[in-house]
């Protein structure tokens, strides 16, 4: 018996497609977290709520573009499916991050491109006052451990600037994306050089 057959059996026996674990994960979140488009579509066809909140108040769309279980996600086909079914591209999690913030942070270039193409809030800020460009400029130990592709983050930054993001936006710490790049990125970084060359 395959996974879908098993889920179909459970649903036929009265299981609730919207039931959650103790930490708030619904079946839809679990399917998206592993990039299972077939299961995601099956659950949506059985009335799973694509905007349902899970852990950290993430929606399924958030799960397509973040670091989960010590691995990176960049599930464009799953994100496209969710958006085609009405997922809200600008919903925020408990840190007020949109999927665009997460895509920029973790180098999920395919998701960033998709989200920007459907009206993602380019100048939206999280609870630290950071835009997606601030997140693209960041580098952390966890990002290094997970092998975040900084070339992809550079590509995301190029898209953000080309689409009109305010590159001089200041976060709650009084820092621009340029200032973050100067402390977080090595001197030879293309992204650091690019942000440093933008007019102030």
From TrEMBL:
InterPro entries named among the record's database cross-references: Ankyrin_rpt, Ankyrin_rpt-contain_sf, Multifunctional_regulatory
A family per Pfam: Ank_2
Keyword Secreted: no
The ANK repeat ranges on this chain: 23-55, 56-94, 95-127
Entry keywords, A to Z: ANK repeat, Repeat
Name the UniProt record assigns to this protein: Uncharacterized protein
């Amino acid at each position: 018996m395959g996974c879908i057959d098993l889920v179909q059996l459970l649903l036929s026996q009265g299981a609730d497609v919207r039931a959650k674990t103790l930490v708030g994960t619904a079946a839809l979140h679990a399917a998206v977290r592993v990039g299972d488009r077939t299961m995601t579509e099956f659950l949506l066809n059985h009335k799973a709520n694509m905007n349902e909140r899970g852990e950290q108040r993430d929606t399924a769309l958030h799960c397509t573009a973040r670091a989960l279980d010590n691995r990176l996600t960049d599930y464009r086909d799953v994100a496209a499916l969710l958006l085609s079914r009405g997922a809200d591209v600008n919903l925020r999690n408990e840190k007020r991050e949109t999927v665009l913030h997460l895509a920029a942070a973790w180098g999920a270039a395919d998701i960033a491109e998709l989200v920007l193409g459907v009206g993602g809030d380019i100048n939206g800020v999280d609870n630290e006052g950071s835009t997606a460009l601030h997140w693209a400029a960041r580098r952390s130990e966890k990002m290094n451990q997970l092998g975040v592709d900084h070339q992809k983050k550079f590509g995301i930054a190029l898209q953000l600037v080309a689409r009109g993001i305010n590159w001089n936006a200041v976060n709650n710490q009084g820092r621009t994306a340029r200032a973050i790049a100067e402390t977080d990125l090595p001197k030879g970084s293309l992204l650091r050089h690019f942000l440093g060359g933008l007019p102030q």
